[in-house]
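Kindly go through the following sequence and its backbone structure tokens. Advise at your convenience whether the structure tokens fit the sequence:

___
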Amino acid sequence: MAPAPLSLDTINLSGLADQSVSAEVIQPGDVLDVAMVTDYTKLATTSTPVRVADDGTILVPLVGRVGVGGLEVERAEQAVNAESVARGVFRTPCITLTMKQCRTRKVTVVGAVNKPGTHELPRGSTSLMAALLAAEGLSREAGTEVEIRHTDSRQIAQAGGPPSTPPWPGDPNAPPSQATYVQSLPFAADPAVVKVDLLAATAGAAAGAAPVPNLRDGDVVNVAKRKLPPIYVMGLVSKPGEFVYPPSQEIRVTDALALAGGVSNAFAEDVLVIRHLPGVPEPVRIAVSIQDAKNGRDNIALAPGDTISVERTPATAVLDVVQNFVRFSFGGSMQWF
């Protein structure tokens, strides 16, 4: 039997999702807005945008550098207020932090997708699923093989991961001014190209296998097209030749005959389907009746690479002789009387 065509609807892309990071968790590259009351007599307020450095610190006006990487905005705000008191800048500080802009990652998606191009992903959602959704999903000719190419070996990694319970400002065991993020060196063991099979990855995620790595800034995602060998129709047909096997559609014997313009002999009835199986030296030959195929009993599904031959029979040979005789008789100069 021919293998069933791959239906992309059966691929559950949710298995490629990562554990998204909350937009309230501060990471390098984010832009925060620091607002503080500098004069209580006039209630004068200043607002300054600051960018989180690679080491997870921000430069707060009048206070200096404070580590906020890996903290939620509310905890980071408390850390800045505590540092301003510890450094003797304010006695009763009123400093407010708000997330002004989250850092995004630009990922280029090419190949068999509906909207190829460069897409911006929120830094809290940089999974392969997010990239494919940004490209409006897989196209009809898409295969299951995806190649992720890293164009930059640098990686910003959180040292030890964010604590389950962030320390309160002023905690002597974990001072908030410590850098939570570190700039790591290129990883020699980290491959520049990662190949992912969508079916295996989604099935592996359900079985508890290792997840697909998240995408980095500048990565290129290439969704390969399905390469299916064509089918060949020969013998007593009007247009013998090679025909493309559609990736997401099933082709049967009557469909192949229609692609070849139908049979060229009215007495043609026997069809031979020649199929090559992996690991089998000799091809498999399947005899099919055209009449039974039209009735739906013998209209078997074809596999990519099949050869469909409409065979000659004694009946078709007789008809060919009669047609050739009539054509010669009426087309020549033969006198009947």
